[in-house]
Amino acid sequence: MKQRIYLLIIASFITLCVLSQVRKTKQPNKTKTTDIENTAADMASILYEEMLPNTQKVFIIDSIVVNYSQLLNAIPFPKDYGTILPYNKFFNTQKETDTYVYVNGFGNKCFYSEMSADSTYRLYTRDKLNDRQWGSPQLLEGFDIPFTEINYPYMTSDGATLYFAAKSEEGLGGYDIYVTSYDTETGKFLKAENIGLPFNSDKDDILYIEDDTDGIAWFASSRRQPEGKICIYTIALTSTRKNYNSDIDEKTLRNYAAITSIKDTWDSTESRQQAMSKVQKAISRATKEKTTKSSICFILNDDVEYTDLSNFSSEKNKQQYQSIIKKQKQLDNTNEQLEQLRSKYHHATKTEQNSLSSQILNAEKSQENLILSIKNEIKELRKSENEQKKNNPLKYIIMGKKFFEESELIINADGSIFHLHIKPEQLAHKIILVGDPGRVSLVASHFNEIESEVESREFRSITGRYNNKRITVTSTGIGCDNIDIVMNEIDALANIDFNSRQEKENFTELEIVRIGTCGGLQPHTPIGTYICSEKSIGFDGLLNFYAGRNAVCDLKLERALLNHLGWSGNMCAPAPYAINSDKELADRISGNDMIKGITVACGGFFGPQGRQLRLPLADPNQNEKIESFRYDGMCITNFEMESSALAGLARLMGHKATTVCMVIANRYAKEANTGYKNKIDDLITKVLDRI
Predict the structure, then answer these.
(1) Number of helices (H) and strands (E), helices first, in the chain?
(2) Cβ-Cβ contacts under 8 Å for 425 (sequence gap 6 or more)
(3) Mean of the per-residue pLDDT values for the chain?
(4) 463 and 496 belong to one structural domain
(5) What is the value of pTM for the model shown?
(6) Which of 174, 235, 253, 350 is the most buried (most CB within 10 A)?
(7) Are strands 634-640 and 511-520 parallel, antiparallel or unpaired?
(8) Do 557 and 550 meet the contact criterion of CB atoms below 8 Å apart?
(9) pLDDT in tens, 448-457
(10) pLDDT value at residue 304
(11) One domain for residues 46 and 60
């Protein structure tokens, strides 16, 4: 009996141990996420304590709470220091993103955040190639911090200091504001530094902007704000960074770091009033710029006055004009400073006058240098513009605006463009081009409603709506020469005022997709394949007649192809040009079910495409050479007759364009299918859905 009792006690003890162990093993699963969150919070807390002794002493002039949607409008920084736009507005797209693009004051460089292949956001920059076309994106290298999100870039006027907001495991929580500088020797940015307290907190702190002309800056924070609200702080800039004295008590220091009271940061009520006058000055400048839009006043000569930045003949001259304006503002500030110093001098003691004398002399020297510099720059700018004016016979300037003669822009009696017979109001901003006039009806058969229909020669146009998208479909006929007509006329419809014959003040970007047929040149492009032209090579020579072709073309690809083909003199095409389609549009249209490649656009259907009937070919091995060509891991996928002119003219004009084709003949396999017309409707539907 006793033995049985002992056994029961031992069994009970074992059961209790097992249950206890089960509880212990289950518990971590319940608190795993909490532990991670606590660890992150602890790290942020440690970082905060490390930053606290180095809290920067700042003079916060004012603050205002606004909705997130009002953020950009509530900061009155001047236009010459750049503009900030939502990503979708700048790139004219509809991506699911809330990132922003910063464009510098000269309008020739932009910075923006975009999601990369590893699903993290990174900063990119682009340079402007001409008045309207932006170059390829360049990843900003450096920083040395693994940011999970990055947004709100802003480059200071020196072109070397970049501020941005980012999220990182090494941050305080939410977005923190960081700063980095460009290293001209390495061509990379230095390690990004957290700008610390009081600018950053455990909430979202974003959009640091400096206006060194007026000596003020802004940043925004969601600390202590309800959902959807953000507080914008206006601060007075100082020449050097100063931290709070170490002898202040910890509670006061923490209040400064958290910005619990902006009044506590004021030296005096008088200094705050002086600072507020600077803010009001900045607001006045910004308001004036918004009401006048891009209007300017530059007297070129007795007959011509420029009223818009677009009147200048080159990007260089635009930058020089903006440099003049910036120096003029500096001169205005110097003049104001001189008046204040001279007023103080008359009421100062002898000791104070000695100090003020040196300040007045420095200001007068600065004034003299600025006046001389402005005078010389204006002289150089006038000389350059007058020389350009003499060398431009097709366009001339009347009171600062580009005017187009009747012989250059032909407008029909009914107000329509010469060849297409379309009126400006009949053109949508999304355009589909097809070769066959009969294919226009096939595309339009998918429209929910039709607004207008016009036909002239081989050019037939229908404008209507497809799933709430306004689209124009136009036939071009065959060949790059017809593309030249269509592209120039639709650009004129969008960007020239037909009443005044002057270029419109605001540029309208068009989105153009050509749907066509082609001949496949590779084993992986059989009959029925859909090909999107990532790059196009023009054997037609059209783009060589336009200025700026070298700025938009892939010159390395051109040289590599000519070397491979061995053409010289007047043999075949003496000067082929290579051009990229718009990357964003090509990616969107091609999706995951089209082949992307290099397309050759030929100036004819037979000889230029290597077809031989009764006439012999100048280069009998042309097609074999083309099929074997490789460049940067890519091959030439197909022949057609329009893609190069479309992509090239679009890039020069500032529009987005690409070409998609269905293979109806495979030159490699020597097969053809003339019964393709039913299947091409599937390609049309894909384009309509994706444009």
Answers:
(1) 15, 32
(2) none
(3) 83
(4) yes
(5) 0.47
(6) 235
(7) antiparallel
(8) no
(9) 999 999 998 8
(10) 66
(11) no
